[in-house]
Amino acid sequence: MKLDGSHVLVTGATRGIGRQLAQELSARGARLTLAARKQAELEALASGLGASAVLADLSDDGQVATLIPRVEELAGPIDVLVNNAGVFVPGALARLSAAELRGGLMTNLFAPLELARAALPGMLERGRGTVVNMSSLAGEMALRNMIAYGATKSALSHATRALQRELRGTGVGALLVMLGSVETEMTTRDTKSDPITAATNERFSRLAPLPVTKVTPKIADAIERDRSVLVMPAYGWPMTPIRMLPTRAADALLRGLPPSL
Questions:
Q1: Buried b (16+ CB within 10 A) or exposed e, 152-177
Q2: How far apart are CA 119 and CA 157, in angstroms?
Q3: Of 29, 143, 134, which is closest to residue 86 (Cα–Cα)?
Q4: What is the mean predicted confidence (pLDDT) over 52-63?
Q5: Average pLDDT of span 208-212
Q6: What fold does the segment set 7-253 form as a domain?
Q7: Residue 187 pLDDT class (50, 70, 90 cuts)
Q8: 100-109 — which CB contacts under 8 Å span 24+ positions?
Q9: Measured at the alpha carbon of residue 91, what is the angle toward residues 182 and 175, in degrees to the nearest 5?
Q10: What gap in Å lies between CA 65 and CA 55, rounded to an integer?
Q11: How far apart are CA 54 and CA 59, in angstroms?
Q12: What is the pTM of this model?
């Protein structure tokens, strides 16, 4: 998928990976629309990159439902959807509030799937486009005090793999990005409110967390090369073929069925 001249929507664009990725995509000639919750930061970033800005809280299902139409009315058809927005809700499940649990599920799982559902018909009609879902290696492991986050990322990874199979032969693709420890506010600040989560993050950080500046060029490369999966850091790669064994078996069993689309 050529980025130069393509219209790319990036959610969660004002901090961490989203912010750095927006800068990387802009440098490669993409025409950007940025979505985030914090208006001042969003408008400042968009202004600096010559991008469009759309204020959106993806924990609100009403705002999720209108985001794709708002973006396309403002800036035209979306070629690449980057579902980057995410929240980290640390703590044992029994101690989370209903609002915390629902917010995590909405932002990390419902929003990316709904945005993809809304953007895909236009992509399919044009015969080109890419959905990028930012997942986590935390979704491949049962980590205590991270149930809300890990469950949403596991489900998002599963959904992306299934979506790739639905999209075969359409000219539209889906890229699953699975990240381990990356030096962002999510790992340096958001984990600290819960001691178990903080200790878990500290131990994984011993495996050499990646700076954001090394992650985002790889994501842009994966989009341009039409890759289906990107896993970083390298220690996460062995998990991928193991988790894919049941899906590979299903692929073989279901070979020959008519296409989904």
A1: bbbbbbebbbebbeebeebebbbbbb
A2: 18
A3: 134
A4: 97
A5: 82
A6: Rossmann fold (3.40.50)
A7: low
A8: 100/148, 101/148, 102/59, 103/59, 104/148, 104/149, 104/152, 105/148, 105/152, 106/58, 106/59, 106/60, 106/61, 106/64, 107/58, 107/59, 108/148, 108/149, 108/152, 108/153, 108/156, 109/152, 109/155, 109/156
A9: 40
A10: 13
A11: 15
A12: 0.94
Q: Burial level of 251, CB count in 10 A (0-12/13-18/19+)? A: exposed
Tally the residues of the chain: 261
Residues that are catalytic: 149
By DSSP bridging, strand 7-11 and strand 31-36 are: parallel
Looking up tokens 């599963």, which residue turns up?
158
CB 9 within 8 A of CB 202: no
Amino acid, res. 224: E
Give the pLDDT confidence score for residue 207 in this predicted structure: 74
Domains of the chain by residue range: 7-253
The alpha-helical segments, DSSP class H, found in the chain are 16-27, 39-49, 61-75, 98-105, 111-126, 147-166, 185-188, 195-205, 212-224, 239-253
pLDDT bin (cut points 50, 70, 90) of residue 192 is low
For residue 252, the one-letter residue type is A
